[in-house]
Write a structure and sequence with these properties.
This protein has 382 residues and is α/β, with parallel strands linked by helices. It contains 14 helices and 17 strands. The chain has helices spanning 16-35, 42-51, 78-81, 83-100, 114-125, 140-153, 219-226, 229-236, 254-266, 281-284, 321-330, 341-348, 350-354, 362-377, and strands at 40-41, 64-65, 73-75, 104-108, 132-136, 161-164, 171-178, 187-192, 195-204, 207-214, 248-252, 267-275, 278-279, 295-298, 301-303, 314-316, 319-320.
Length: 382
Amino acid sequence: MNPIAHQPDSLPAPSLAALAQSDALVALIRTEIDAAGGWLPFDRYMERALYAPGYGYYSGGSMKFGLRADDGSDFVTAPEMSPLFAATLARPVAQALDASGTRHVIEFGAGTGKLAAGLLNALDALGAAFDTYSIVDLSGELRERQRETIEAEAPALASRVRWLDALPAQFEGVVIGNEVLDAMPVRLFARIDGVWHERGVAFGDTGLRFDDRLVSAPQDIAFLATVEAEHDADLAADGIASAITDDYVTERHEAALAFTRTVCTMLTRGAAIFLDYGFPRHEFYHAQRVQGTLMCHYRHRAHGDPFLYPGLQDITAHVEFTGIAEAGVDTGADLLGYTSQARFLMNAGITDVLGGIDPSDAKRFLPAANAVQKAVVGSGDG
């Protein structure tokens, strides 16, 4: 068992109403833990903490996206920092629509609607032919924010936007997912004294806590841990064989893999573009990543305690992108490209988009240039 220390003193205190909502979610989770015999796998806890109807982080009405802690938000995404992100992404989206001869776009997890509004305007400016822009989002509160943003920033194109409650059985067009995969529940595995355990959640005197149970780890993790000595030289260059040490924690992205397979199976013609934080497999299972990549975000501060303010903070994990690519290819999809967000934005022409702003207009150009630098320099993991 591995209780985790709560350190709320360093973070802004939630309101009494927010704490009451969090307490209600904890009570719901505790009931589920008791019904399951005293233990839940971490992915089930993460799913409830993020998506429990009315109580979870993405379904409970909190601010989430914003620029500063004092506006009540917890983190900022690239589309929120600059419209140049959407204007740049519109270029490969327009190319994919044209190359596939399709006329529809679906965005998953559209946040505040900034990316959707920016893409609508940029696609229109590029002369891209599209009929509908669909959004799949589980949060009713975010849907309303998206609707307001799109009507305010892309009023002439708002009539083309629709919200979907479920995926269509088949789809022809372009699928977009910006920072969606990293918000999907993950399973946690810990290697302790040379033996793999699955990390779950129990409820004790101090509240919610980690509880490790002996299990058979997933095949790829078990393989990496037990690779024979003669194979070490082959894998050493990738940093895999040396990564799995006696004390090691890592994640399995089964929900994200299943989502990728579903999307690629649904997509009969077109392309899917996923932008997120993550690593290829040989970097994901790195010797220095002994505690995994699980991270929480609250009021623009990152910390590692998933049991602090359940339902009021984001819980995320970096994506193991090799597995995502393999999941798509396994459905029969073709891998068109796989690169860092920085290189993707550069190849898509973000500097050309920035060049469309007059450098002598310092009030517009300098903030835009700063945002581009953050999107490119700060996106090496994406």
